[in-house]
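Office hours follow-up: a student asked to see two folded examples consecutively, so here they are.
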Amino acid sequence: MAEKELDCRGLARPTPVVKTKEVIDPGEVEKFTVLVANPAAEENVSRFLQRSGYEVRWEEQAGTFA
């Protein structure tokens, strides 16, 4: 199982969702971390991943959601 980390901090929407889609589309990643810098991006990425069948769990640390 491949594991990745995707840093989307500072990117305007919808870029974090687009980049997340690029990671999951090949179907090779089952577990990965997406870093975003605000609650709106966290919500958008969460919604997209849940619709795509992923289980989502977020942690906030020093202004970064992972």
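And the second, which I mentioned at the end of office hours:
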Amino acid sequence: MQDAFVAAVATWPRDGVPANPAAWITTAARRRSIDRLRRGRAQADRAERIAELARLDAQEHEGEEPESAVEDDRLRLIFTCCHPALSLPARTALTLRMLGGLTTGEIARAFLVQETTMGQRISRAKAKIADAHIPYVVPSEAVLAERLQGVLAVIYLIFNEGYSAAGGERLLREELCGEAIRLGRLLSELMPHEPEAWGLLALMAFNDARRAARVDAAGRYVALGDQDRALWDEGRIAEGRAALDRALAQGRPGPYQLQAAIAALHLDAPSVEETDWRQMAEIYRALAALAPSPVVAVNHAVAVGFAAGPEAGLALLGAPLRDPRLRDYQPLHAAHAELLRRAGDAPGAAEAYRRAIALSANAVERAELERRLGALALDPDVEPPPGAASTE
């Protein structure tokens, strides 16, 4: 594929852009694969691979793609790469790297592993594709459902990186949020009877609705309780409510629908103090039962900390703090600091803040944590901005 793009850059300015650029790229890549196989592989294996690629090449007319229910180029490629022969984490990570615009480090952060570990996983996934002779084939409508979970995960993780960037000088990468929502809309329209597709769209729309209020004019972090709610996007909120209603009407709850319900509680509350934290804690409990993960455990502890007091939240946070997978997970240490501060343990809170700051590669998040640490040092009894330890 990379060779094909190089060829396009070289020839399109001279010859003009073809009528179907995606088909041109696919055909050029396949023919380059044939040439490379002829030069580089053992005879028997080479013959088998060449025959398969030649068959695929022959079934296309120049400038035409095989029939597929997925019309959008990027969404079609995501379905193509989310092949069930790979494990769900492997296909998700590989697709994010190849198509999602995320670096290996950003993907590693999402999967709570070291960058070197994630690099090895992606390399093994590529090797498995080659060794198992998994062809590049656009999936038919009949197999879309078996690939849905991988596609949902890819879109969600693209959105998450846009919503809270792992590194850099910006908290938000708006272009990733916008592309993830675009893909989510297409997916919901393509598979309208899949409630989790609607649940994911609702979740992204609800969170994106607050985008303009999450940083101030100078680009500084604004806690949920300090956000100007007049800046919240009512159109996005309405889109999220409609999508969540579509999902819930189908009577098959899933993790994305539950997360969307949590996001809706934040939007429905007049203020952080008036948020229904007890209901939120119960939804997190249900989410942990349905799709257990250490990140869900952290968010559950924070919600309980607001519903039943910081000591109750700290008791639940003990398990995540002992989980080696979360050793370098910055939000865990930031949440720990806030619960300790609210419980009156200023020295413990300061230590947890320092740990979170050391793990922050994003300049906006790091500056906010440093501000909170400074406020703690000036006055251990200072009240934080409302919602400073929100579950977002």
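Two things to take away from it. Residues 61-66, 382-391 have pLDDT under 50 and may be disordered. The chain has 18 helices and two strands.
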